[in-house]
Amino acid sequence: MANLEGKVYAITCMSPMKPWKTLIFKTVLFLKKFGLFGGSTVKLLRLSFIHFARWVMIKRDDWPRLSSSQPREELSYDYMLFCSNFNGTWDQYIDAFSTVLPEGMNNMWRWSEGYPGSIPTTPFKEYIRKNMIDTDHYYSAYPGAATNDIKQAIQLRDELYKFAKSAKNLPPAEFKTAYERFLVSVQGNLSTTGPITHLARCDD
Amino acid sequence: MGNMKGQAYGLTILSPIKDEPKRQPSHIAEIRNYLAELGTGANSPLANVPKTHIARFAVIGDVYYQDHPSDEDHLKSQYLLWCANFDGALDDYLDQLAANIPDEVEAIWKHCVAYPGTGDRAAFRQYMKDCQVKTTHFFADYPDGTVQQVLRSLDVQRNFIDFALRGQEMDADQLKEHFYDFVDQIDAAETPKPGSI
């Protein structure tokens, strides 16, 4: 199942944009760096199921032409390429965006031709499905780990070493008490990794 | 810098695929067949490029028509899309790719226009940069976590869960002694192989 690797799902979507809208979209993204329209990134972080995601604007002249024998592209539209690596099912992913980030999704997609809006969900899903490109090979260095597993593990490792350093000279009885307090403090960091039993494809 | 977030780099490569209409199988079919046969997880060739977090290959045959009143576009070439999320600088990563899996890189990219091979490292890097499209907006949920840090942390996590369970049966003296043995073990442990967790 090439779009899926362990707990991670790949979505690749390419949608056309009129060239004058590309300029506006780039301006929106530029202004995000100064905090405008910045709420979407904060909400993406809070959703916490996307490892990496990118938006790539491919202008009509950006398609690589590496030989004079290769025909030059003659396109009406620029294209927005969206690639995401996330945990959960395709439906859960799109539902989450439609529910939690409707305006964020509209800010990103409204420039694309035929985009119906993120609410209601059905036409939004149909649009994404129509413009999806399937993955031919998908790789993750940690396929059994969701984003929360990773962030919890990184935090656990840091806290473990801090505790080990701070408790080294405690007598055993005091060490045990301190260890039990430490264990309580990191109980939320003790998730397990591994494959999930079933993920449905969007076309199942 | 659109391609980077923290120390993570989001690379997007579009390589035009050779077009020889009478060739059977076609270049695009050979790429798809080769990619479909590759091992996954720790058996993927990308597991031997240890700076790689998550990556994908896809073939773009054409763009999609959005129905009336949109214009109908068609690509004149087909493209191999390669998206990689990795640690650090682009040149270092491309050098690691070429050095560690040259046969697999050749098997994929030999079907692409003007691909120079991995023998001339400077030419290989330049080819990839000629095929690179700049990422406009890049999101990374753990932008400062390298692959090695992530793998070692996940390994510590799963081993600490085991220790925490065993520790419940230990008295205070045993607990302290075994805890610091555990810390020494995780310090000395090798980083798990990419793709194995």
Compact overview of the structure:
The complex is a heterodimer of chains A (204) and B (197). Chain A has 7 helices and 5 strands.
CATH architectural name of the largest domain in chain B = 2-Layer Sandwich
Q: What is the terminal-to-terminal distance of chain A? A: 12 Å
Name the CATH class of the largest domain in chain B: Alpha Beta
Q: Taking strands numbered 1, 2, ... along the chain, how are they ordered across the largest sheet of chain A?
A: 1-2-4-3
Helix content of chain B: 40-55%
Describe this entry's structure for a reader:
The complex is a heterodimer of chains A (204) and B (197). Chain A is built from seven helices and five strands. Chain A has 204 residues and is α+β, with helices and mostly antiparallel strands. Chain A has a four-stranded antiparallel sheet. The longest helix of chain A has 21 residues, at 147-167. The two termini of chain A are 12 Å apart. Residues 199-204 of chain A have low confidence and may be disordered. Chain B folds into two domains: 4-131, Alpha-Beta Plaits (2-Layer Sandwich); 147-188. Helix content of chain B is 40%, strand content 17%. Chain B has six helices and five strands, in the order E-E-H-E-E-H-H-H-E-H-H. Chain B has helices spanning 27-37, 90-100, 102-109, 121-131, 147-167, 172-188; strands spanning 4-5, 8-16, 52-60, 79-87, 137-140. Chain B has a four-stranded antiparallel sheet, with helices on one face. In chain B, strand 1 and strand 2 form a beta hairpin. In chain B, helix 2 packs across helix 4 (121-131). Chain B is elongated and about 75 Å long. The two termini of chain B are 31 Å apart. The chains are: A alpha+beta (204), B alpha+beta (197). Chains A and B meet through strand 2, helix 1, helix 2, strand 3 and strand 4 of A and strand 2, helix 1, strand 3, strand 4 and helix 4 of B.
